[in-house]
């Protein structure tokens, strides 16, 4: 597994939000609240976690995303998962 940079994670996440959930790219910012601003529901959140897991190869657990509220939070959660997965 290749460790992704913060910028690569951001691009992956923005692509997921626009492709999976048909959110207009200009609506997405790092401070966008997934639930309030982007209308992501709990089922969508599971789909997003699954997408991130498939794209990165890292094991992502729902608990890793429990405190996630914004796009930036997701990026930081993925970085944390990557760092804890380094062997």
Compose a concise summary of this entry.
The chain is mainly alpha-helical. It has 3 helices and no strands. It is globular and about 30 Å long.
Q: How would you describe this protein?
A:
- The chain is mainly α and 87 residues long.
- It has one domain (6-85): Non-ribosomal Peptide Synthetase Peptidyl Carrier Protein, Chain A (Orthogonal Bundle).
- It has three helices and no strands.
- Helix 1 (6-21) crosses helix 2 and helix 1 crosses helix 3 (71-85).
Report the C-alpha radius of gyration, rounded: 12 Å
Instruction: State the name of the first-level CATH class.
Output: Mainly Alpha
Mean pLDDT: 91
Q: What is the count of DSSP helices, taking H or I runs of 4+ residues?
A: 3
Find the count of extended strands (DSSP E, 2+ residues): 0
Helix content: 40-55%
Described by the principal axes of the CA atoms, the overall outline is: globular
The major β-sheet equals: none
Class from secondary-structure proportions? mainly alpha
């Amino acid at each position: 597994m290749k460790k992704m940079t913060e910028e690569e994670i951001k691009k992956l996440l923005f692509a997921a939000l626009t492709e999976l959930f048909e959110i207009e790219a200009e609506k997405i910012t790092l401070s966008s609240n997934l639930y309030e601003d982007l209308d992501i529901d709990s089922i969508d959140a599971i789909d997003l976690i699954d997408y991130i897991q498939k794209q990165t190869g890292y094991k992502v657990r729902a608990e890793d995303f429990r405190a996630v509220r914004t796009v930036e939070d997701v990026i930081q959660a993925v970085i944390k998962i990557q760092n804890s997965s380094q062997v």
